[in-house]
């Protein structure tokens, strides 16, 4: 069965312009760009739910995403990404904890590499994985964005207590 071509759109976020790609099979990638791509005037139907849910996330009205996902990756990468989806909003885990959850403490480097290859930034919350000592380590979008996302979720969580 032939996969249809990916559709793409660009939206504005507090972190910069985001590029979203996908088709009727699901969302394939979400990334924040360093360049200022021209924003999309219209959003393809296949990407509309993703755009809406990202805006809700940034407006602090959404904690979890409910989207059909279709990322490209190895079986191991997909296993890691599936595990990342279980990290609760506003929480973080270490790479060591991630490898333990995957059932192989020795797979810490492989899990970290798979985390870094996550094509669905924010949607699959790879930003919630930090160093064992609590330090921010590695984020394809830059550590400043990782810090922003963690702060955003922490502040939202605190606001919802009152």
UniProtKB/TrEMBL annotation:
Active site (record annotation): 126 (nucleophile)
Gene Ontology molecular function, alphabetical: methylated-DNA-[protein]-cysteine S-methyltransferase activity
Keywords in alphabetical order: Cytoplasm, DNA damage, DNA repair, Methyltransferase, Transferase
Reaction equation(s) it catalyzes: a 4-O-methyl-thymidine in DNA + L-cysteinyl-[protein] = a thymidine in DNA + S-methyl-L-cysteinyl-[protein]; a 6-O-methyl-2'-deoxyguanosine in DNA + L-cysteinyl-[protein] = S-methyl-L-cysteinyl-[protein] + a 2'-deoxyguanosine in DNA
GO BP terms in the entry: DNA alkylation repair; methylation
CC per GO annotation: cytoplasm
Protein name: Methylated-DNA--protein-cysteine methyltransferase
């Amino acid at each position: 069965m032939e996969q249809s071509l990916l559709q793409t759109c660009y939206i504005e976020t507090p972190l910069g312009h985001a590029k979203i790609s996908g088709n009727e099979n699901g969302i394939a990638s979400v990334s924040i760009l360093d360049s200022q791509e021209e924003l999309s005037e219209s959003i393809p139907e296949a990407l509309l739910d993703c755009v809406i849910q990202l805006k809700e996330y940034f407006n602090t009205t959404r904690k979890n995403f409910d989207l059909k996902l279709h990322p490209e990756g190895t079986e191991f990468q997909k296993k890691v990404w599936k595990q990342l989806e279980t990290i609760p909003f506003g929480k973080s885990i270490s790479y060591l904890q991630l490898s333990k959850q995957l059932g192989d403490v020795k797979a810490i480097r492989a899990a970290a590499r798979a985390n870094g290859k996550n094509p669905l930034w924010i949607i699959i919350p790879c930003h919630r994985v930090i160093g064992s000592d609590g330090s921010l380590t590695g984020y394809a979008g830059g550590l400043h964005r990782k810090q922003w996302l963690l702060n955003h979720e922490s502040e939202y969580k605190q606001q919802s207590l009152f």
